[in-house]
Amino acid sequence: MHALLQAGTLSKAEVARETGLSGQAASVIVNRLLDDGLLVKLDKVRGQVGQPSTPIAPNPEGAYALGVKIGRRSAEAILINLLGEELGTSRVRYEAPLPEPTIATAVAQAVGLLGHLSPTARSRVVGLGIAMPDEIHAWSAELGLAAGALDGWRDADVAGALGRETGLPVTVHNDAAAACAAEMIAGHAITSRSALYIYLGTFIGGGVVIDGHLYRGEQGNAGAIGSMPTGSAAPGAPPSQLIHSASIFLLERALEAEGIDPAQALTDGAGTEANAVFDAWAGAATIELSRAIVSALSVIDFQEVVVDGFLPPAWRDRFTQRLSAAVERFNRSGLKSATVTAGSIGPMARVLGAAMLPLKARFSPDTDLLVRSGAARTLAQPRG
């Protein structure tokens, strides 16, 4: 299944070569997967030397998965098929991620999307992935909430609530790591075996790719770039963190101060005033983020830095260009160069990654995500 999802279509003989199986073993397994409805036969290919071959392909209706993203400003859900094609989405925006109503919203979204499937298709849903920030309870002040307003997240069982209501196996992932996974599986920006992935969300986060695999760390916290200390601090005070200088919530505040609707500006980026506010925020954010990147390069020899996030494409590209220029201005003696490029998926990356990870776990020979440079990918990017 992994080989076919990577290649798109293969004959039985090609499946044998790709997997290292004998021709007989490959044929037996393919026939079983055909019987199970996970694969389909396509029309025979004629006109080549030898007997006509019959291409085998993944059946889009062979399996499905759900993804749910719980964020600081919105909850999103997506239903995808085996090829990663979007079948339905839901997005609910809120002012604050208060635990009980947010979990109730996520449950309603997931159950609602499952309701679009027939009973047969419903039985083919392999799992539900949740993408959410780590320690969401710790950021009340940054979201303008009273102290302790988010403490309910400390003991909240999001996976349990969604599992009970959907009957599906549930896995929980860091939201930025899930976005990195989506870029690795369905995007085209990560092409090297080592990359630092940065997601510009309400709070900035990241992911780490080492030796072609998504590296989660021994404690599951690799890529927590938002917690990196920045700049100088007042005497006796701890340094600030990158989350306080390169996160979208700061851009939202600046837009609101100018009487601009942040939701609208972050959708299309239109308007001279909105662009001026964005440029001012980007100028400050790239100064601190470039320092963090160069610091990261001195620890791990990343080949590339990929930047995506909840920004209109034009703003994301301008931010990436400014960031690349800022990195170039550093004294990087003793360090190898790393390209700084824009991601290819955008705001849907976190929820899409959450949905794709259960499929990856079910149909991959191992649970580690692997970058395959130049390989064909049948997993589709979402529309829009």
Automatic annotation (TrEMBL):
Residues 2-41 form the HTH marR-type domain. Coiled coil: none annotated. It comes from the Bacteria. One of its GO terms (molecular function) is DNA-binding transcription factor activity. Belongs to the ROK (NagC/XylR) family. This is ROK family transcriptional regulator. It comes from Azospirillum doebereinerae.
